[in-house]
Write a structure and sequence with these properties.
heterodimer; A: mainly beta; about 0% helix; about 50% strand; globular; B: mainly beta; seven-stranded mixed sheet; four-stranded antiparallel sheet
């Protein structure tokens, strides 16, 4: 079954709007990563989080490691057309990753931005 | 600096054939992981290698195998190809594969099985 629930599945927004997406799990994670994937390319790392409660920014992007260690969110402020793509959350879970580098991925959020 | 490089970029095979995919990690990275991404889904973990040793294996059949070479590059082999093996195969590298070292992905090999 699905181990990381990512929502929303897709978003269609106006340029300039803020965007929020999140990932939740029933298992504890000790690392959360956010990636963006454009068509025909591999995922590109946006933000990495390593501590519960950690809030990290990368330009217009902000992500947080949930205090319960079972969730994370990503915010994009003032969206622009080049933000279009698929955003994936991924993480390492002591139980689900079995102490390996096995990243567990969400299903992805497809973002479309209308100019 | 060069990122993770994968070859070939595209490949077409028929059922029953065998395929070898190649990956060169970011310079200085000693851990390589392989993922399979089918259309519309997130990547699924296949293998992780560190210092030429297998560190982890995902829920894939024995038709899938991999190895890592002394220069830390890696190959993924798939035997007896099935239609369901059609996917984007991604390679990711990190310094040592630990949780504090994020994995960086290549652009993948698109494998199509006819």
């Amino acid at each position: 079954g699905q181990q990381l629930n990512q929502s929303p599945q897709s978003m269609f927004i106006q340029e300039g709007e803020d965007v929020s997406m999140n990932c939740t799990s029933s298992s504890i994670f000790n690392t959360w990563l956010w990636y963006k994937q454009d068509p025909g390319e591999g995922p590109v790392l946006l933000i990495a989080l390593y501590k519960a409660g950690e809030l990290t920014s990368n330009g217009r992007l902000t992500a947080q490691f949930g205090i319960t260690r079972k969730d994370s969110f990503l915010n994009i402020s003032a969206s622009i057309p080049s933000d279009v793509g698929i955003y994936f959350c991924a993480g390492l879970s002591p139980r689900l990753s079995s102490n390996t580098g096995k990243l567990i991925f969400g299903q992805g959020t497809t973002l479309q931005v209308k100019p | 600096d060069a990122g993770v490089t994968q070859s070939p970029t595209h490949l077409i095979k028929t059922r029953g054939q065998q395929v070898t995919l190649r990956c060169s990690p970011i310079s200085g990275h000693k851990s390589v992981s392989w993922y399979q991404q089918v259309l519309g889904q997130g990547p699924q973990f296949i293998f992780q290698y560190y210092e030429k040793e297998e560190r982890g294996r995902g829920n894939f059949p024995d038709r899938f195998s991999a190895r890592q070479f002394p220069n830390y590059s890696s190959e993924l082999n798939v035997n007896a190809l099935l239609l369901g093996d059609s996917a984007l195969y991604l390679c990711a590298s990190s310094w040592d594969g630990s949780r504090n070292q994020p994995q960086h992905f290549g652009d993948g090999t698109r494998l199509s099985i006819l």
